[in-house]
Every structure is written in C-alpha cells, then in structure tokens.
Amino acid sequence: MDRTAQLTAHALGSGIAYDPTSTRAPGPAGPGSLHVRAARVLAANWTGGSTVPSRSLYPHQWSWDSAFIAIGLRHLSPLRAQTELETLLAAQWADGRIPHIVFNPSVPLDAYFPSPDFWRSSTAGRAVGAPRTVQTSGIVQPPVHALAAWLVHLADPGLSRARGFLATVHPRLAAWHRYLLHRRDLGGGGLASVVHPWEQGMDNSPCWDAPLARVAPAPARSFQRADLDHGAAEDRPTDLDYGRYVRLAADYRDAGYADRQREFAVEDPAFNALLIASEHALANIAQELGAAGTARHARAERLTAALVERLWDPEREIFLCRDLHGGPIPERGVSGLIPLIVPELPGEIAAALVRTLSGPHFGTGTDLVPSYDLLGAAFDPHRYWRGPAWANTGWLLERGLRLHGERERADAVGAAVVETADATGFAEYADPYTGEACGATGFSWTAALALDLSRRQHAAHHGQRSHRQLQKMDKS
Questions:
Q1: Is 203 a catalytic residue?
Q2: 17-27 pLDDT, tens per residue?
Q3: pLDDT for 232
Q4: How far are the Cα atoms of 93, 292, 306, 332, 413 from residue 399, in angstroms, in the given order?
Q5: Contact 335/272 with Cβ under 8 angstroms?
Q6: Is 428 a catalytic residue?
Q7: First-to-last CA distance in the chain?
C-alpha cells in the first residue's frame, strides 16, 4: 500500500477498501463513496502536521483553509483535526495575529509567490512579534478558527479533554480576537478592517476594484507569478490586479507590519460575521474550560449591532463593504450574504438576505451560490472570486440558512455543494451555472466541507433522531 493509501486508510478508521491508483472520474455516488474520495484528497494533501490546500498551486499551510479543513477532518480523525489547528496557531505572532501563510521550509522558494524571502517576517515583523523559528506571511485571513476549534472539540470531547486541546488553543484564540478588535478597528466603529484583499480571503472580488484603483501596481518585472504555472490565466487575477496586491503587501512589510489606516482599508461583512460567530464559539470554549462566557456573548452582540449599523444596505437588501477612504462600496458580493451565520441577526434582515440569495442577483437555478452579482458588470463565471461558486461560502450559507430556520433552502445549497464537489474531483471553485470545474482539483477545503455537508445530509436522510444528534454535535 502506498503512502497516500496508508494515510487514507488511517483517516477513514475503517476497513473500507479501494484502489488508490484508480483513475475513475469521481461522479455522483452514495455518502460512503464520497467519504472515501474526500478522505483520499485530504490524505494526499497531509504533510504530517497540517494540510496544504493543493499540492501544486498552494504548497504551504493557509490560515482559513486549515480552519475549514479541520471541520471536515473531525469526521475522519479528530486528532488530526486538532493537530491541524495546533500547527497553525504555533506560528502566531506575539501581537496576536495569525498569519495567512505558514511556510514549509522544505518547499523551494520558486514554488509559490510571494515566498518567504518576499515577506521577510522574522526581520520585517520583529517589532510586532513575528516568530523567529518559522517563516510566515505578515497579513491575516478571516477569523473562522474559534468556530472550527469548537466543532472539532465536539467531534470527540473525550479526546479533546484528554489532550487539553481547548486549554491549549483558547489563549491563542483569545489573543487573535484581541488583535482584531483593537489593532484592526481602523475605522473606529467597532469593526475589524482588512488592509489587503488577500486578508478578506475573496482575493479578486469586484468589491475591491474601487479601493484598489488608488494603488499604483508594482512593476511587472519586480515579481514572477507562480500561480499561472498551475492554473488557466483566464481563471486567475489579471497581471494589473496582481501588481497592486504585490504593492500593498510590500508597503505593509516595509512599514514593519504596523497597523494603521493604510491606502487600502476596508470593513468587510463576511470577515466581521466570522469574527462574531467565532466570538460565540470562544464563549462556549471558555465555558467548557470553567470560565464565564458572558462577556464574549455580549461582545458578539455589540459587534452585530456595529455590523448592521455600518454595513447593512436596506435598499439593496445586502451587506456592503465599507472603504474607509470612500464609504460604502456599491457592489453585491457573496460576502454580503455571509452574515446569515450571525445568531442575533435581526429577523427582518435575515429574511431580506434570503430574498437576495434567491433573487436575480444570486439565484442561478442550480442552488450553487455565485461569489458575485450575476447582474454585475464585472461578473465572470470562471474568474477567481468574480463569479464562480466556492465550497466554503456554500458551507457558511448552508449553516446560516439552517440557523435562521430556512431548512429546505439550506438542504438545497448543501446538496449543490456536495454534488458539484464530487462531480468535479473536489475542484477549487466552479461555474455557478454549469458546475464546470475551475482552478485546482483535489482541493482540500472542498473535500473537507463536502464531507461535512454529506454527513449532515446522511443524518437527515436516516431519521429525525440522527438529524437532531448532528445538530446537537454542531451546536455552537
């Protein structure tokens, strides 16, 4: 048995047999078959301490990828899911930030750009506490980590308690939230700001076009893109946009990664909604450890009020990004729907978001949710975050819909994510109309979240009792 087969068999924890060399194209099948195929992807991308998003395109550890990956791994190996998060948090900076990339020193520098020699974290970030023993980037990604940690704990509370998992991660997660709530409240209104499109995670969204237009791009000759070696140019950001990304990152690095209002500073609804959801999860973690979670829940309520006050657009019935230099950005992105995951979201706003999700701006007829307005001038069904559907946003919307009582709609969105993931070989993203694969295949968070959603579907189909058990297991 080769290494991939060994790891997959270990992850499955069962006697399920399969041919690891099979080239059969993945297609619609029962939960068991998808379980095996998803486990195979996650085994192939496991490095021993963490999971890469894609062996070819993203050969290091990514922050919010690892959080989503852990959510799926908990069904295969709770221990490995805990290790995934522990490995990421071990690279945390002293100021509390969790870097968006933790670099694997065994990977050649030219395998990914920007590489460690661009970020220079241990030197450029020394004043704000970058670690000296591991190389990282200097920017962050959305704070889904505490939610992931809580779900991982619930998958096997006995193992979690025996290992002291929550006791280990809690202080690091608390420091991460303090960093966002204090160092990143650049607008003074109580919300966290991002200082680079890569921080929000939806890198190439048209929501960034207006604030990015102020940024002079880095000269094309000053960097060499590696992503085009592994992905079609028409699916990836343009050279102009990439030059602006490089300029912003270099300027932040050259300022010693100090947080202040920068040329690009945006309050994003999805980023802050994830912070709210994770504040609630962190309160549950504190209570599990014997401390009061009341202050955390109260903080989440204040953040919810700030989110509604600053980013809700009642006429468009969607949350908008706010450019701290230019005001609300009048673009409808999937980020504006993600606040459905917020528990205390006012009922009338949740209902309006459901209408928007089902309406002409996001309703494709396939139940795949596009990453950008179908009627927007910049819509492109294949280009990175400018229209394609993604598994992680589908997973978040499924969770949010279910939270607000939209069970049938949640079932439909979840089923579309699972079916498309399986049919495309767990593609990075997909055409929201046709389900055609885009980007990398064998993508880790697609496999992990399809696995998680298929488990929910399987429980629902096998009786109300099992469905209630799954809901209890996922309660956050």
A1: yes
A2: 222 222 223 33
A3: 65
A4: 31, 26, 22, 20, 10
A5: no
A6: yes
A7: 39
* Model confidence, pTM: 0.91
Annotated catalytic residue within 185, 203, 301, 474? 203
- Per the CB < 8 A criterion, the answer to whether 432 and 389 are in contact is yes
Say which residues have a Cβ less than 8 Å from residue 261's Cβ, sequence separation at least 6. Answer: 186, 187, 193, 324
- What is the C-alpha separation between 6 and 325, in angstroms, rounded? 53
Distance in angstroms (rounded) separating the CA atoms of residues 167 and 285 = 9
What is the token pair recorded at 115? 């590489």
* Secondary-structure breakdown of the chain: helix, strand, coil percentages, each rounded to the nearest 5: 55, 5, 40
User: What would the pLDDT profile of 341-357 be if each residue is shown by its tens digit?
Assistant: 999 999 999 999 999 99
Q: CA torsion sign, 409 to 413 to 419 to 423?
A: positive
Catalytic residue among 268, 317, 380, 428: 428
Residue 150 makes CB contacts below 8 A (sequence gap 6+) with 281, 282, 284, 285, 476
Give per-residue pLDDT as tens, 209-261. 999 999 999 887 766 655 555 556 665 667 888 899 999 999 999 999 999 87
8 Å CB contact between 340 and 400: yes
